[in-house]
Amino acid sequence: MSDRLQKVIAQAGIASRREAETMISEGRVIVNGAVVTEQGMKVDPASDYIKVDGKRLKKASRKVYILLNKPKRYITTRHDPEGRPTVMDLIADVKDRVSPVGRLDYETEGLLLLTNDGDLANALMHPKNEVEKTYWAKVRGHLSEETLLKIARGGISLPTGKTAPCKIRKIHETKENGWVELVLHEGKKREIRRVLERVGHPVVKLKRVAYAFLKIRALGIGKYRHLTSYEIKKLQAIALGEPFEPPVLKKAPVKRLAKPSVKKTRSAAPAPKQRRKS
Question: Is the pTM higher than 0.85?
Answer without folding.
Answer: no
